[in-house]
Efflux transporter outer membrane subunit
Amino acid sequence: MNTPHSSVFRRSLLTVLVALALPVLAACVAGPDYIKPAQDLPADFKEARGWKSAQPADTLPRGQWWEVYGDAELNALVAQLDVSNQNVQLALAQYRQAQATADAARASFSPTLGASAGASRSDSGSKTANSFKLGLDASWEPDLWGSIARSVESNDASLQSSAASLAAASLSAQASLVQNYFQLRVTDASIALQTRTVEDYRRALQITQNQFAAGIVTRSDVAQAQTQLKTAEASLIDLGVTRAQLEHAIAILIGKAPARFELGSKTSLAPLPELPLSLPSSLLERRPDVAAAERKVAAANAQIGVARAAFFPSLSLSGSAGYQASRVSDWFDVPARVWSLGASLAATLFDGGLREARTRNAIAAYDATVAQYRQSVLGAFQEVEDNLVALRLLADEAQVQEQAVAAAREAQRLALDQYKAGTTSYTSVISAQSALNSAERNALQLLGRRYTASALLIKAIGGGWQGLDAY
C-alpha cells in the first residue's frame, strides 16, 4: 500500500539517482590535458667533443657522488647535511606542506558527514515545551566537470615539484660543501707552501746579512731581503683569514655554529676523478631543479581546468536523518524519526567577467611556467658546457703551469748561486724568488679551480651518474 511518506521517499530517491547518474553521463572535463612542453635540444654537448669518458668503480654507493673524490673526511661532513642544514630543512618543511595540501584537495572527492545534538525549552505563555534533537547530516558535491579532479592533479604536480625542490636544495648544499672543503684544502696547501717560502726568505736574509757584515754587499741588499720576507709573512697571515672563513662556511652548511666546529689542517689532496658524460636526455631526468620546473608547468595546466569548470553549474546533494521529540525516551518511536533528501543545481549567470578573467590569469600563469621551464633547461645546458670547458682547458693550463714552476725553481737556484758567487745583484735573486712563489701559488689556485669545476659539473648533471632514480 502506497503512503504519502513512501511516495515522497520514492520521488526523493529518484532525484538522487538521476543526480548520481549525471557524472557518468558527463563526457566533458574542463581544461586541457597536460602535454610536456616541447624543447629543441641538442644531441650532445658542444664542449664534450673529444672528452674522454671515465669508468667509475661499480662499488660506489648509488647517489653518493662526492665519494668519487676518495676523501673520508669529506664523506663524513656531507653525511651531516640532510640532517642539520637549515636550507634543506626548510625545503623539507615545504614538501610536507605540499603533501598536506594535496591530501586536502583529494578529500573533496568524499562526502561530508556530520552529527548534531540539541535541546531547547520554550514557553508560549500557555504551554511550556521541551524539544530534544539528534541527527546525522551528509552532503556531497559530485565533480561533474572535473574541477576537483583538476585541482587534485594540480596539487599532485605541485607536490612532485616540491619533492624535486627538496632534492635540488640537498644537491646544492652538497655541491657547496664539496667546493668549500676543497678550497679549504687548497688553502692548507697554500699555507704550507707560503710557510716554506717564508723560511726560504728568512735564510736568504741571513745570507745577505752575513755578506753585509763581511763588506761584500750594501745595506740596500739587506733592506730588500727584509722587505721580501715581511711581504711573504703578511701573505701567510692573509691565507689564515681565508682558511678561517672557509671553515666557518662549512660549519654553517652542516648546521653548526663556527665556534663549535674545527677542521684540522691537511695538505694532501687526492687526484681529481675523471667524470663521465651525461646525454641531454639524462640531464633532464637527473636535474631536480629542471624536474621541479616541469612539474610546475603541469600544476599550472591543471589550474586552467579549475578555472574553466567555474563556467558550468554545480550540483549539491544533501541528506539528513535523526530523531526529534519532547522527551529523550521518545526518540526511537516512529513518530520521532525525521529524514530528508535533497539536490540543488546552481550556476552563475553574471559575474562581470570574473570567471573569464580568472581563466585568462590561469593561462598566463601556465605560459609563464613554460618559459621558466625552458629557461631552466637552457641554464642547465649552460652549466654543463661551462664546466666541461673549464675542466678541459684548466687541465691543459695546469700542465703548462707545472712547467712554469719547474723553470722558476731552476731560475731561483741559479740566481742564488750567482749571488753567492758575487756575479749578480740581489735584485736578481728577489726577482727569481718572487717568480717561483707566484708560479707555485698559481698552480695551487688552478687546482682549486679544477676541483670547483669538477663539483659543479657533477651538480650540473644532477649529482652523479650511477643508476640514479628520476626525481
